[in-house]
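Forwarding these from the shared drive since the link keeps breaking.
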Amino acid sequence: MIKHPLSLYFAVDFVYLQGYARMDSKALFFQKGIFKWFQFIQVIFIIRGLFMAGLTVYLLQKYGIDGYGDMLIYKQLAGWAFSIFVIGMFFYINVPVRNFFAKQQNQLQDNNNLALQQSNATVE
């Protein structure tokens, strides 16, 4: 689950719906600096599931079956909090993706400048 995070495949499908190729997106998202964020989101999904199960057990012990309505409120609030956090993480992944593209662009410019300098040196 950690080596193939579900959140990565959600993101690949999301960018596919925006018109980008799945294979290109998948290759991009498996880059070292980007992939760790998808793993982190996967860990948050796991923690969310464990927390919600623990919350249900705790609330059942505290309120019993008669307090089911109160339990739903607490569980809904906890679900919203985790959802907001996960959505924020998906938005944050845009930062390492932009940094990756900026780094690639700088390397490309450096390679072009080096090739230009070498061609100027051979002409002289």
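-- next protein --
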Amino acid sequence: MILQEKRSSNLMGLEAAVEVAAELLNKEIKPVLVGGQKIWVAKACDDFVELADGCGYAVLLIRSTKGLVLKNHSHFIKTY
């Protein structure tokens, strides 16, 4: 059995990436967050909803993530 070394994140790199992503998204007319099945795998459901709440972008889900965001959520638009 091979043990994988736990990797730590580069905090400065993460902050820079978030800043660039936010600049790009905030320039768009109608940005949309698309939730896919990897959210379940990564156990990032709460983080995704927090992101949706914080940024105010519309939320679209694929079928495998149906129920991740409630249909009455203020940013929810559709499940495909």
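Residues 31-79 form one domain. Helices lie at 11-27, 38-41, 45-55.

- D.
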